[in-house]
Structures are given as C-alpha cells and as structure tokens.
Amino acid sequence: GKNEYDLLVIGGGSGGLACAKEAAQFGRKVAVLDYVEPSPQGTKWGLGGTCVNVGCIPKKLMHQAALLGSALKDAQHYGWNIAQPVHHTWSVMAQAVQNYVKSLNWGHRVQLQDKKVKYFNLKGSFSDSHTIRGLTKAGKETIVTAENIVIATGGRPKYPTHVAGALEYGITSDDLFWLKESPGKTLTPFVFNVSLECAGFLTGIGLDTTVMMRSIPLRGFDQQMASLVTEHMESYGTKFLKRCFPTTVEKLENNRLQVTWKNTDLGTEETDSFDTVMWAVGRAPDTETLNLETVGVKTNSETGKIIVDASEATSVPHIYAVGDITEGRPELTPTAIAAGKLLAQRLFGQSSELMDYDNVPTTVFTPLEYGCVGLSEEAAVQCYGSDNIEVYHAYYKPLEFTVAERDASQCYMKMVCLREREQRILGLHFIGPNAGEVIQGFALGIKCGATYPQLMKTIGIHPTCAEEITKLHITKRSGLDATVTGC
Amino acid sequence: DYDLIVIGGGSGGLACSKEAATLGKKVMVLDYVVPTPLGTSWGLGGTCVNVGCIPKKLMHQAALLGQALQDSRKYGWQYEEQVKHNWEVMVEAIQNYIGSLNWGYRVSLREKSVTYLNSYGEFIEPHKIKATNRKGQVTYHTAETFVLATGERPRYLGIPGDKEYCITSDDLFSLPYCPGKTLVVGASYVALECAGFLAGLGLDVTVMVRSILLRGFDQEMAEKVGAHMETHGVKFIRKFVPVQASASFRLKVTAKSTEGPEIFEEEYNTVLIAVGRDACTRSIGLETIGVKINEKNGKVPVNDEEQTNVPYVYAIGDILDGKLELTPVAIQAGKLLARRLYGGSSTKCDYINVPTTVFTPLEYGSCGLAEERAIEEYGKQNLEVYHSLFWPLEWTVPGRDNNTCYAKIICSKHDNNRVIGFHVLGPNAGEITQGFAAAIKCGLTKELLDETIGIHPTCGEVFTTMDITKSSGQDITQRGC
Hints:
Chain A is an alpha/beta fold and 487 residues long.
C-alpha cells in the first residue's frame, strides 16, 4: 500500500533533525524517531542528539567555566580585587548547563511542531525496507511506513572490554555532563579529544584529574600540535600517566574506586584510588538494535558503521544514512547537519549538490584550544614528500597574557603549504585562545584556494592573535628562531 | 650621511627603518614626543604601542574580565560579593608592559644598526634636517631618501578650558589617578572604546555626541554598538557640543544643543576629548622643501608608491591623505616601501579590503564596504544582504544579551554573489574577522560560504549558515540550536 510518510528519520540528533526539517520545507510528510537508551549508569536525555545533550554544548559550557576560573586569576593582575578564597561548586554549574540543555530539547520539539514534522519518542528497528517498528520503553509497538528512510542514530561511548569492573564502576561522557554531584578526583583513561577536553575543564574547576594514555594523544591529529596541547595541560595541572593502560577497577568500602594499571615503560603494575573513572575509549555506532541485517544495509565489518556513497545512500535503495553513524566521515555536528540538509534537498528539492567533506575545520576545546583545517604536517609529508612542502611557523604571545603574566610557551601556529610556485595552503594549525573563532575564516580562505602569497597580502587586525597568521614568514626548513618579537 | 632618514618612530617608521637596515642600508630614525598640555610623554614606538592599540586593548581586556567575573558566578564560581577595581594597579601593569616594548624597540634598532635619535626633526633645506633633543641641543643630518612617519595627535575642541582642564587618549592610559565620573566628548572609535572600558571598570560614563556614531563605519552596525553600550550603563547625550570647561569643585562642562537653544551643564571628575586626530605635519619644515600637504586636514597626499610630490620624500602611516589610520597598514606600507627602495621589489601596499575591529564592549569587526557605501557604489538592486542575530553559547548560562550579536554580509549579485562587505558584532570580533579578510582577498562568494563547514560551537560559524536576506524581510530572532 501507500507509505505513510515521504521521509522517516531514525535519530533526532544534529544530522537527523536537520534532514527532517529541510525535507518538511519542501512540503513533505516527515517523521522523526528519537530514543535514548539509558547509559549503563542510568543517564538519559531529551531530543537533540549527542551534540546538544552529551557533546559539544555541555562540553563547551564546562570548558567556559574552566576558562572563567583562569579569568578570575587574570583579573587580579588587571586591577580587580577578589578576596580569596575562590572556589567552584559543581552543582551550580551542572544545574545551569543542564537547564540550558533542557531548553534546547524543548526548542527542538517546538521547531519540529512548527515545521509540521511528526515526532515519535520510540526506539526504531527495521521490519522491511519501508517499514519501521517503533517501541516505547514499556514495549508498546507502533508501525511506521515511509518512502525514504534516513538512519541517523549516531554513536555511544565504548567501554573497554578487557578491564574488570569497567562497566559497573566507570562512567563515560554520557554521564559526566549529567552528574548532580562533583566527580571529585577523576581518572580518564585512553585519549580521544573528549577525554582531553573533559580532563582539561575538570582541572580548570579545581579537581584532581589524571589522564591515562597507552600511546599517542589525539590520534589522527597533527602530532606536534597534539603534544603542545598535552604539554600545556601538564603545566596547567592535569596529571598524565603515559604509556599506561588500566587492568582492573574495584569498588572500595568508602565508595571510591581502586584502579590498577600496567606501566609499559617500567613494566610495573601501579595502583591508586579515585572518585570517578571516566572512559573515553572511543565511540561505537548505534546500529545493533536497528535490525540492519533484515533489510541488507551493509556496514563496515571493523567499525560497524554504515557504508554510504557520495550521496549518503546505503546499499539498499531508499535507505540513507548521515552523521556519526556513517563510515569514513568526520564525527562532527556541522558536517552531519550539512549532509542532512543536502540529502533532503537532493531527495525533494531537485538539487544534485553533494556534500564536500574536504578541508573540514575543527577545534579541540582543551584549556589552550587547538583549531585546525586541512592536512596535518605528517599527512602532507606523506602525500607530497617533505621536499615539496614548506611549513611556516611561529610562537606568539597573546597580548592579554602579558599583563596577566601567563605562560605562552605553547601558543603556536603553523601553515603547511606546497612549495611550488603558487604555494597553495594545505593545512593551518593554531593553538591559542579562541582557536575556533580564529580558524573559521581561514577555513573559508582555504576553500577559496588560498595561497601563501595571498595570505601575506592580507593586512592584519591589530591587536589580535589571528593577525600573526598573516605574518607567518619563518620556515621550519630555515631552522631560525620562530618566536614573534615585539610589535 | 645616511641612505635613509625616517622621521617618526612609530609603527610605520620603525618597520620601514628596520627593513631598510636588513637590506644593508645606513638608516637613522628620529622619534620625539611633544608632551601633552598636561605634560604626558612616552618612549619609542609611536601611538600604537604607547597611547593606542596596546594600552587600549589591555584596558578593554580589564573591562571584559569584569564581565567575566559576573558570568563566573553563574558557572559555579564563588567568592566575596564586593569586587572593586583598582585603577592604579591596572595602569602600573600596563605601563610596565609598554616600558618593556619601548625597551624592546631600542634593542631591536641597535641590533639592526639603525641610528636612533630622540630628537625633533625638521627640514631646513633639501636633503637636510635639523634634529633638536629635549635639552635643546641641535645636530644636522643629511640623507638620500626621507620617509615621513610622524603620525597624529588628538585634536582639542578649541573652547575655553579645553587644554587646561580636559585630557585626551594621550593622557588616559598613564593617568596616575582613577578618572572617576567621566564625560567623553566625541563619537569616534577612540571615544567609544574608551567610554566602553571605563564603564566596564565600574565608572560613571557619559558620551557627548555631536551627530552620528563612528563616522565612516557602517551606520547600522555603529548604532548597534552604541545601543549595547547604553543598555550596559553608558549614558549618551546626542546632538550637543561642549562650549566651555571650567573648574569648580570638580570639572564643570557647559554644552549647547546643535538643534536649538538648549543648554546642558554637568560636573565631572574627568573630561576626555576624543573628537579626532590631527597629522603632525605643520611644523616639520615641509614648506621649506616643497612637500605639499592637504591644507584642510594637514595630511600628505602620495602616489601608490607612497611618494610625495618631492621625489626623495616618502610618507607612510596615519599622516597619509585618504588612507586608513591603522598600525598594520603602516607596518605593511613601511616594509614594502623599504623593499621597493632597496630590495629590488615592485610590490605595492594593497589597501583594498583592509579589515578592522572596534574594541567596544561589544566588539565590531569588518572588512570591505559598509552597507550604505555598497548601495551607493553598486545600487541596492544589485546587492543581496544576508544577516543573522546570534547568541554566543558562553552567554546562555549567564543569560545575557540574547539577540544582540549580529552578523551581516553584503554580496554583489552580478559578480557571483561575491562578498564585498563583512560585518560582525560580537565577542572576539577581531579573531573572527581576520580569517574572513583573507578569504575575501581570495575572492570569497556566498556559495563558498555555504559550502564551508562551520566549527561548532563558535560564533564565527554563523557565517556558514546564513540563509535570511534583508530583502526577504524575514525575522532573524534566534530561538535555539
């Protein structure tokens, strides 16, 4: 018979909602299913997906709380008289952040209503390629049929498989942002952006925080920049246990956690107690309960992510996927949103525009932020050979750090260019305050095919940190001191 | 005696002289600060370092930190309720930093073997100047080429009491006592930036404006800048001009309306005059060697290679007629000039699409044309203006200023929707605008903006998702993610 909806989106996160709302603009009958399986610790949340509830938004707000802690210290140098002691109360911050997130959940529901998109708070799975079976928490069933289906169920944090007690006693980022009480002395094992960002703001609000890493930090990112980031965090007060991995987590009588780990450098076993252990092992795509095998949607055997082509189509006609769930795509909110919108425009708006995943800028919101766009230095070397690239770099000091007497040792930027005539820019990397704001415009420049000479022709805005990018002239090759001196 | 003598040791002058020295030339720099009526003076480095960009941004930062203190409580930080600001602590810290910069410049000149004279330079005959130091000692020097980089100084009002009782930005940044209740006269970016940070430090501030705010800037943006300052406690008295300043217990200012007979009188601790700056070209002997200046504003007209009407005399920086008064422009012009003179280069300074930022409490960054200029040049029907309000994520928790930050781009329809004007009102406007200025240099279009992925969550990303045009008349009020 006829399908109830033109489009059914499974997953009400960044990608899903963007796709659904765009499709509705074309006058289509659209429905969204969103359901949050509680975390092992029992945490759950409302409509909006990872970004809004347990990702970008609460993360950046807590990062801001930490930055404000630094601002309080700076302020005294600038003449503000603040009586000691200054301390931070987790519950005030958490309540404020959680309230804001809830207002966003509400906002999303209102938006869907305004755009006449039907919203189901149901857990969906495939019955056939046009039919979804939705279940409530209590197990009540609703059947929904649609001409086109978009899978946008995102991912959830993984737990380590070989660590006893990991699941029972540890939490993940899914839980951290919803804690009502302070996490206290925290250990974050393994290292992806999430754990560094979280460890960073936990340190910033005054908590005893340790990061444990088995090998390299920020895998996939430029490694020189990654080490500057962790170097800064170390001087900022975050403890690092390098080349270590946890073996067991036990609960103690006073409700604290005893963690044992192997130090691969020394070949020893070590142990310490913490209030909280937050795993940041990576994220796994949320596909298990979708019943993809029934309809034949192919996934990558290693990652479990859904395989899609350049038009976001899966192996099954009329079934598409966008966002973190898709194989080979960056796990970022703005790419999911753009992909979702373009997909809707292609399905219903007579557009043929495909998503461009090249040169997507990103920022890691560690205490000293790291923004980048394009290739890392090692990727550029691999791609073109070190003889064919030129790396311009500089250590600089933000003006605001001077009076505040803050250490700027890790404030650094580098531009990787092709060496031949035009000197096209392959990658730009910046560590410093407001890295996201700095990089955004340059990402556009790179989209316009910016070359090194063009950047040098651009006049700087004074005084800013970003202007130093337009003044980069010392190459790594020259071996000269790359510290920016004076005005 | 010299290949090059540069008169003026500011942003432009120092950049030019150092570059020329690097290229192997014998260079001299003269720098001399005529004390203000109040007696304020400063060291090597020019306006930017001593009484401009640097202290301005640091005081702006002090004010922003005051706001951060308020926000921090909403983010869970707790400390004693009463927080006051100590002006003297701030000025001392800033002056110490400036002192280190003055020192750094002297070292840098020495390292590059540039001769530095702390003397007032004047032309007495072709290729020859007379240099007078503070003690009145005179020396004479000749050079093949001269560069004028004497910059500007604040203009006074020409009313009774202005020089005796009022101060300017030349005095403000090293003022040894807190200015207290302040009247700022003027609506230049200097006036608004100073009024802004003074208010942010907790002072009672009033701005007296003769007509419009930020003349020369996009007026829609200028009004938004002013409106934000007003909602945050800065008082504005519009369409009045002071006619007299006299001393009683405090400073009494008498002002007249520009539209009628109305008189305004009020007392202040400090009156800061910020009505514009005049070029320092009138008493350096330019007439003696025939260098023409624009009689109206005192500025020096030059060709596109910064050359005056006298072939061996060049000019750079704020004294140029018709060019932007910005440090980075002066530096770039100075460097390129030296390279053209001595390095065999032919690259000229590119004055097109120079980005700027006004560091008012709500910062305003821009690159390209103001909307009214664009309409004048292209015609309204040939433009598409996209705009959006936005709420920085960091302001949500403290619940401040929703639907206040604003982003606007002006596109030329007949040129592929090329971005010819970029305007942003919000925190870190300078950091945001810089990259976009580079993109505009590379021919940024609306399509490229739409194709670029935003960084989330930032303010800058708003430019990658702008859908609403002014012509559509649609509401841009923000309601959520």
